Amino acid sequence: MADNLQEQLYQRIREALLAGRFQPGERMKIRDLAAAWGTSPMPVRAALQRLVAEGALEGEQQRSVRVPAMTRERFQQISLVRLSLEGLAVEQAAPRIGEAEIALLHGCIVRMEQALEQRDVQGYLKDNSQFHMTLYRACGNPILLRMIESLWLQVGPFFNRLFTEADLLLRLNDFHEDVLKALLAGDGRGARAAIEQDLSFFGQFLLNLLDLDSAARGLG
Question: HTH gntR-type domain: from which residue to which, for each copy (predicted)?
Answer without folding.
Answer: 3-70
